[in-house]
């Protein structure tokens, strides 16, 4: 039985390499290629995708947001997240998004095909060392709303822009940022962004 795969990666050379590797496998067929998170749901629906291989950092909707959307609207589609960031916090976010697998981009080529087969068969495919690290890691102390505010701030937006984007008042945004800095024992918001990024929380 051939596994129908969608590949979502914004870097053309990387996407081409992934597609070429998968097409070497007799039991895997790449039925769709997309370059942004916004394209994933409709492409998966049209191509009757069984496994979506998704880069975590995509333009438009990021990979985890797209994976969550797939889980909610096309629950039969399994998702395999690719990332260059092997951080336990990133894995925790991926598992919270109900992804089926999590693979580092620098993993050996044969691991990709095996991970696709595994998630297609209904198994969860996660790097063992990373899973153990995530198990031992302290969970993110920030609420989802605080993470949203910090992520928007990390994108270089000022308080007014964050407030408009998050539908909050500027005072509320400032309060969130003060709380975030306190919770992370950071020196300031720049330090809070660094801590959150290094932990894989944003």
UniProtKB/TrEMBL annotation:
Modified residues (4-aspartylphosphate): 55
GO BP annotations, alphabetical order: phosphorelay signal transduction system; regulation of DNA-templated transcription
InterPro entries with a match to the protein in the record: CheY-like_superfamily, Sig_transdc_resp-reg_C-effctor, Sig_transdc_resp-reg_receiver, Tscrpt_reg_LuxR_C, WalR-like
GO terms assigned for molecular function: DNA binding
Annotated keywords: DNA-binding, Phosphoprotein
Domain of life: Bacteria
Response regulatory domain residues: 4-120
Keyword Phosphoprotein carried by entry: yes
Domain named HTH luxR-type: residues: 134-200
Pfam families referenced in this protein's UniProt entry, alphabetically: GerE, Response_reg
Entry keyword Phosphoprotein: yes
Name of the protein described by the UniProt record: Two-component system response regulator
Organism lineage: Bacteria, Bacillati, Actinomycetota, Actinomycetes, Pseudonocardiales
């Amino acid at each position: 039985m051939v596994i129908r795969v969608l590949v979502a990666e914004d870097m053309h050379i990387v996407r081409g390499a992934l597609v070429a590797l998968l097409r070497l496998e007799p039991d895997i067929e790449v039925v769709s290629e997309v370059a942004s998170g916004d394209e994933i749901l409709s492409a998966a629906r049209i191509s009757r995708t069984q496994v979506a291989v998704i880069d975590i950092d995509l333009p438009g909707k990021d990979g985890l947001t797209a994976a969550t959307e797939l889980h909610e609207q096309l629950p039969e589609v399994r998702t395999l997240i690719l990332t260059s960031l092997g951080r336990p916090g990133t894995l925790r976010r991926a598992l919270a998004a109900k992804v089926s697998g999590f693979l580092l981009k620098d993993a050996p080529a044969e691991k990709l095909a095996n991970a696709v087969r595994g998630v297609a068969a209904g198994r969860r495919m996660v790097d063992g060392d990373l899973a153990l690290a995530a198990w031992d890691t302290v969970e993110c102390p920030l609420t989802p709303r605080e993470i949203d505010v910090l992520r928007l701030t990390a994108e270089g937006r000022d308080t007014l822009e964050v407030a408009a984007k998050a539908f909050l008042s500027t005072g509320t945004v400032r309060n969130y940022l003060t709380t975030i800095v306190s919770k992370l024992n950071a020196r300031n918001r720049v330090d809070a962004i660094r801590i959150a990024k290094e932990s894989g929380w944003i």
